[in-house]
Amino acid sequence: MSDTRRRVKVYTLNEDRQWDDRGTGHVSSTFVERLKGISLLVRAESDGSLLLESKISPNTAYQKQQDTLIVWSEADNYDLALSFQEKAGCDEIWEKICQVQGKDPALDITQDPIDESEEDHFEEIPETTHLVELPPCELGRLEEIADLVTSVLSSPIRREKLALALMSEGYIKKLLGLFRVCEDLDNREGLHHLYEIVRGVLFLNKAALFEVMFSDDCIMDVVGCLEYDPALVQPKRHREFLTKTAKFKEVIPITDSELRQKIHQTYRVQYIQDIILPTPSVFEENFLSTLTSFIFFNKVEIVSMLQEDEKFLTEVFAQLTDEATEESKRRELVNFVKEFCAFSQTLQPQNRDAFYKTLANLGILPALEIVMGMDDLQVRAAAIDIFSYLVEFSPSMVREFVMQEPQQTEDDVLLINVVIKQMICDSDPELGGAVQLMGLLRTLIDPENMLASTNKTEKTEFLSFFYKYCMHVLTAPLLANTAHDKNSKDHPEGSAKINPVCPDNFQTAQLLALILELLTFCVEHHTYHIKTYIMNKDLLRRVLVLMNSKHTFLALCALRFMRRIIGLKDEYYNRYIIKGNLFEPVINALLDNGTRYNLLNSAIIELFEFIKVEDIKSLIAHIVDNFYKALESIEYVQTFKGLKGRYEQEKDRQSQKLNRYRRDARSMDEDEELWFNDDDDDEDGEAVERRMDEDFSDSYEKFMEAKKGAANGANGANNGKSAAIPAASPAVTSSNSSSSSVKTVALPATPVVKTALVGLVDYPDDEDEEEEDEEEEEQQQQSPRKRPRLSS
Question: Is the pTM above the cut of 0.85?
Fold first, then answer.
C-alpha cells in the first residue's frame, strides 16, 4: 500500500478564482532529465497516469499554507496547489523545495514575489532591508502601526515583507493582547487603530497569518477588533452573536474533535468574510483571494471527513425517516443534510458525483419522499432545497429512482407526484416554492438531458412513465377549474360552449399559469405523448375556457398553449381544432377586448398572422368560413383581409384544377374516338413505318415542305391527319399517296406515348390552355410591386 504521507490532491486556480480539482495521487520529488532539474511528480492513484510534472525553479515563490498545502504560480494566471493528506508529507516536500532553492524550511514562503510595476525599481531597494521595521507593540505606537499596515497594501513587495515581519516576531498575538487591554480601558482611539491594523493584516492575503488569526485562541479577539469600525457610532456585537445567538447543533454527536474544530473555524471565518468585512472595492477584490481559498479547502475537508464516516451518515438517515423522531429533531436533521449538500458545491465534479452516489446509497430519495409530505413548512422547504441539489446535479439519478417506484408503492406516494402536490398546495401567496418545484419538474421531463444508452432509451421509458402515473395529477387543478356546464349535453358536438368557471382567486390563477407553462413545454418537447393526452382529454378545449379569466396573464398563458400547438403545423392538431370549433373562444376574447390596444390583442392577432404567413390552408378555410363576418370589421391590421385573400386564392386554384380535370376527361373521350377511327388505317400505318425507314435520309427541304403541307391541311389525301411536331425536335415526315391518311412522326429524346393528337382540328380548350400559359408567364415576369398583395 502506498505511503499516505505522500497522498495529495492537485488543484489549479481557474478564471473565476475557484480551485479546480485535477485528481488524487502520490507526490514525489526526483530529477527529470528532460527538464534538467529536480521536479515534483504526481501520479494518479487510480491508473498511475501523470497528473503533475513541475520543475522546482530557483525563482518560483512557493508558499506553505495551513500545514498541509503548498501553493505556487508556474506562469501568469496559472496557480497550482498540492493538498496533502498528512502534515508530515507536506513538511517533507517543503523541505525538498527549500533545499533546491537554498531557503530555510522554517519560512512559509520561499521567494519575494515581484510585481511587474516594481521590477524597474527593484535595484533601488537596499539589499539589507530584508524585513519591514515594525514599531514596538505598545499602546502609544498603535497609530504608527496602523499607518504602516495601511501604507504597504499598495505594494506587493512590501506586503510580503510585512507579512514575514508579523510572523517572525509573533506580532499578531501581541496586538491581540493590546486589544484586550484597550477594551478593558475603553480606549476607543486605540480600538479604532486596532480595527485598521487587523483589517489591513487580513488584506495582506497570507495563509500563514490566517492560521494564527483564525486559531481557537485568537479568532474571537480578531472578531472583537473588527467590531470597532471608526465609521460607526456604536460598535457591532459580532462576538455576542457568535457565542450566544449562533448555536452549534449536533444532530448526531460528532466524536472527531478535529472535525468539530474545523466546522467551528469555517463558520466563523465565513462570518468574517460575509458579514464583518466590507464588500471589497474593484481595487481590493483580490486582497481576500487567499481567505476564499482558506474557506474552500476547509469545506472540502469537512465534506470528505463526514462522507468517510458512514456510521454517522447512516444514523442521520435512519433518524430522518423514523416515525418516532420528534419534529424538532427531524427539522434539525433536514437542515443538516441541506447544509451538507450546500458544502458539497465546493467539490469538483468527480468528487461531487461520488458524494451524491454516497447519499443515494444511503437512501436520500426515499427519505425526501417521506419528509416532503410532512406538515412542517420548514422541513418541507429544506427538503425541496435538497431535492433541487439532487435534480440539478443528476436528473438521471432521480428519474432512475422514480421509475422503479410503481413496482413498490401506490401512485399517490410516488416521489414526482409528491413534488407535484407540493407545487399545487403551496401556501405562499407568491407561490415561491411552486415556481421552484415547477423548474425542477421541467428539468426532469426535459428530453435534452435524458441519456440514450445502448440497451434502452431513457426518454421513451421515462415519458411513458410520467404520462401514465403523473400527468393526471399535474392537470387535475386545471380540469377542476374548467369544468363543463351541467347542460353541456344540450350543446351539439363541436360546440365550444363551456361554463366559464374561471377562478377569480389570484393564487389559483397563478398556479394554473404555472401548470400551463409546464404543459406548453411538453407540447414543444414531447410531441407524441402530449398529443395523445390532449386528444384523449380534450385538453385544449378545457384550457381555452381560461380565455374568459379576468386575469389577463392567465388568458395569455392559455393562448400561448394554443399558439405552440398551431406552431407545430401538425394536421392532426389542426383537424382536432377544426372539429372542436376551438377558435371560437379566442375570437370571442378578441371581440370582447374591443379596440383596446394591449398585449392580449397583439397576441391573438399574432396567432392569426402566423396562420396567414405559414399558409395553413385547413385553418384558413375554417376561420374564413365560420368567423369572417365577425372579423371583417377589423381593419386596423390587414391580417383578416389577408386570410380572406389567401382563402380566395386557394378557392380559385382549386376551381382551376377542377376545370382542368374536366377538360382532360373530355379531351380523352375525343382522342379515344379519333384513335378508334384510325384503327382502319393500321395497315397503311405499317406501310408508312416501312417507308419511314427508307426515307430517313431525305433532305431537310422535303421535311420543310411536308411541314408546310401539314399546316395548310393539304397533303394529297381525303382525310388529312397529322401528329403535332415539336418545333425543337428533329422529325421525319413520310407521305403515302396510296393511303387515305398522312402521318407525321416526331422523334423526341424521351419515349413517345402513342396518342393520336390531331393538329388540324382547333379546340377552344386548347386556346384557353395557351392563354393560361401566357398569363402565367406574364405574371412571372411582373415585378413584385405589380403583383397582387395577399393582404389587399
Answer: no
CA distances from 267 to 231, 244, 257, 643 (A): 26, 14, 16, 67
Q: Would you list the DSSP string of 324-365?
A: TS-HHHHHHHHHHHHHHHHHHTTS-HHHHHHHHHHHHHTTHH
Indicate if 72 and 155 belong to the same structural domain: no
User: What are the backbone dihedrals phi and psi of residue 280, each rounded to the nearest 5 degrees, phi first?
Assistant: -65, 145
The three cell numbers locating residue 95: 523541505
What does the pLDDT read at residue 187? 92
Contact 333, 316 (CB under 8 A): yes
Higher pLDDT, 705 or 519: 519
Residues 6 or more apart whose CB falls under 8 angstroms from that of 463 comprise: 445, 447, 526, 529
Cβ 759 vs Cβ 722: under 8 Å: yes
Whole-angstrom CA distances from 736 to 290, 356, 688, 693, 746 are 110, 97, 7, 13, 17
Q: Are residues 256 and 191 located together in one domain of the fold? A: yes
Percent of the chain with pLDDT over 70: 74
Instruction: Say if CB 152 and CB 162 are below 8 A apart.
Output: yes
Indicate whether 153 and 301 sit together in one domain.
Answer: yes
pLDDT tens string 375-398: 888 888 899 999 999 998 889 889
SS3 69: strand
* Number of domain units in the chain: 3
Going by C-alpha positions, the residue among 702, 715, 767 that lies closest to residue 742 is 715
Note whether residue 442 is domain-resident.
Answer: no
* CA 151 to mean position of chain CA atoms: 47
For residues 711-734, one letter each, b for 16 or more C-beta atoms within 10 angstroms of the residue's C-beta and e for the rest, the string is eeeebeeeebbbbebeeeeebbbb
CB 194 within 8 A of CB 178: yes
Would 714 be classed as within a structural domain?
Answer: no
